[in-house]
Every structure is written in structure tokens, then in C-alpha cells.
Amino acid sequence: MLKRFFWVAIATVFLSFELFVNQAYALELDEGIRTVTANEAGDVITFSEKEAEKGKRLFNDTCAQCHAGGRTKTNPNVSLSLDTLNGAEPPRDNVVALIDYMKHPTSYDGEVDLTELHLSTARSDLFPEMRNLTEKDLKDIAGYMLIKPKIFPEWGSGKAYF
Fold first, then answer.
1. Which residue in 83, 108, 113, 135 has the most C-beta neighbors within 10 A?
2. Are β-strands 35-37 and 44-46 bridged in parallel, bridged antiparallel, or unpaired?
């Protein structure tokens, strides 16, 4: 009987505590974090928190199976870190360039067309994940990819070799 009373008391304290503690909300991103490079000219764009959250959801639904944590499963040398995106040819470290890549993917050096191998809107018949993505969806995904390294510096790290 004493044992049962003890467990009821513990449960009551725990549940009472839950009533007075605020729920955990998603991390609020300030404007500086949500501001990223828009194009090669260096213009900037500030995403709303809603757009950043949508970009995260779309990235996780569409891209994360191969790019979990900003890494690339099929080629560990090419990650989604800002340094790697900047080193691509052409550089992919801005929203416009990332949208272009999602439409017409090329190799890191820009020499080989990867439309048949990499998710793209150009071949949504091969990649149904891309079928319903709008231009706005691509913009939100690109924004998320550029915001993520600001809040998680390890984004894209973990190369196996180089």
C-alpha cells in the first residue's frame, strides 16, 4: 500500500510540474540568421521564420535521404557546407544558384550534366519527390540550406577523404 501511495505521489508531482512549465517551442531565428545571399551580385534576402521552417520540412522530405546533416552519401567530398558550395563551379552559395542547381544539376566542376542522376525538377518523371515542388518551394529549400550552417556550424562536415 505504501509503495502504491509513493508512486501516486511521484506521478502527481510530475504532472503538476508539467502544468506550470511552458512548452518547448521551435528555436526562433533572428533576422540576421535568416538573411542569406540571394545571388552572385551579393544581394541579400531575409526569409521569414515560416519560410525557413517550410524549407526545413521540404529539405527533410526531399533531400535529406542523401544529404542528412549536410553531407552527401554518394560523394563524401562534396557536402552542403558553405565552403563547398562556394567552391563549386559555378558557385552555389546563394539562393539563385541553388535553385538553378535543383532545376539543372551538374557535377561539382560544372562539366557534367547530372539531370539523370540527381533529383531535379527537369526530370520529375524519374524523381517523383520533385514533381510537386514550386519555384517558391525551391527558394525555401535553398534558404534553409544557407541558413542551416549559421545555426549548426558542423553542417556538411565529416568528409571521408579529399
1. 108
2. antiparallel
d(CA 141, CA 119): 13
* pTM above threshold 0.90: no
- Alpha-carbon 16 to chain mean position: 37
User: What is the per-residue burial (b if ≥16 Cβ within 10 Å, else e) of 111-139?
Assistant: eeeebeebbbbbbeeebeebeebeeebbb
In angstroms, rounded to a whole number, what is the distance separating the alpha carbons of residues 114 and 11? 57
Q: Give the Cα separation of 111 and 117 in Å (integer).
A: 14
Read off the pLDDT band of 160 (50, 70, 90).
Answer: very low
Q: H or E stretch including 85?
A: helix 82-87
Quick one: pLDDT band at residue 6, thresholds 50, 70, 90? low
Q: Could you give the domains of the chain? A: 25-151 (1.10.760.10)
